[in-house]
Amino acid sequence: MSFTQQLRRDTAQLRQQILDMPFNRDLAAGTLPQEVFRGYIVQDAHYLEGFARALAMAAAKAPDADAVAQLAGSAIKAISVERGLHGEYMAQFGVSAEEYEATEISEACDHYVSFLLRMVATDDFAVGLTALLPCFWIYHEVGQKIAAEAVPGNRYQAWIDTYASEDFADGVQRMLELIDRTAAASSDATRARMQRSFARSCWHEWHFWDSAYHMRGWLAPDAEPSAKRMPAIAE
Ligand SMILES: Cc1ncc(CO)c(N)n1
Ligand SMILES: Cc1ncsc1CCO
């Protein structure tokens, strides 16, 4: 079994939970309230800028020219998706450049982006690289599933088409190959950190959607503590 197949197997339950989320179910049905999608797209545009920075930083740490070009190329693509797809939806929903800039990044978005930048900046290239994988892989998986179920005339079709596309699949495939090559050249201890980095990043994908669906900003000091807390991941 390849390293990335192992990552897939280890996170099967969480990835299934993501596929079953109400955000994704309602997106496929076209019934996701527009104000929820509007809030999501603004946060996701901010996310993509942070994600592109993390990719560019990973590019700078990459071991060879092919990997530098691949990761820097994905950084450019992430910005062009933000400008194209997200820009289009923001224009449609009447989000001005000023409103976009003035919108505070949500707790979930900030946490995910901070996590990616930290993993890439302070851990080994292999570990930071693996933190970047769920962004590619999970979106493609979700995009494909939704594309198969989407009702005709779905107002979120442009989003679905982007993530279900062959072009996006190509980026996912190249990332899987780079990670399998990197894992093969890494120690057991590094591979174990890559696995944890991947699992945590998958959790951030879940958290980002959950936060968007409930239109959450930041936890207030007087808020009830959430009942549902997962135990810290065991060693
Ligand atoms: C949170 C998140 N993860 C992944 C992608 C894929 O680009 C995205 N747009 N947003
Ligand atoms: C992961 C990702 N998300 C938007 S663009 C991009 C890179 C595709 O190569």
Structure description:
This protein is an all-alpha fold and 235 residues long. The protein has one domain (16-213): Heme oxygenase-like (Heme Oxygenase, Chain A, Up-down Bundle), CATH 1.20.910. It has twelve helices and no strands. The relative contact order is 0.17. The mean pLDDT is 95. It binds 4-amino-5-hydroxymethyl-2-methylpyrimidine (HMH) and 2-(4-methyl-thiazol-5-yl)-ethanol (TZE).
Mean pLDDT reading: 95
Q: How many whole angstroms does the radius of gyration measure?
A: 17 Å
Distance between the termini: 23 Å
CATH topology: Heme Oxygenase, Chain A
Structural class: mainly alpha
DSSP helix fraction: over 70%
Cofactors, ions and other ligands in the entry: 4-amino-5-hydroxymethyl-2-methylpyrimidine, 2-(4-methyl-thiazol-5-yl)-ethanol
- Using the coordinates above, name the CATH class: Mainly Alpha
Characterize the largest beta sheet: strand count, sense, and whether it forms a barrel. Answer: none
In CATH, what is the homologous superfamily?
A: Heme oxygenase-like
Total domains, how many? 1
Number of strands: 0
Order of helices and strands: HHHHHHHHHHHH
State the shape.
globular
* Strand percentage: under 5%
Active site: 205
InterPro entries: Haem_Oase-like_multi-hlx (IPR016084), TenA_E (IPR026285), Thiaminase-2/PQQC (IPR004305), Thiaminase_II (IPR027574), Thiamine_Salvage_TenA (IPR050967)
Pathway: Cofactor biosynthesis; thiamine diphosphate biosynthesis
GO biological process, one term: thiamine diphosphate biosynthetic process
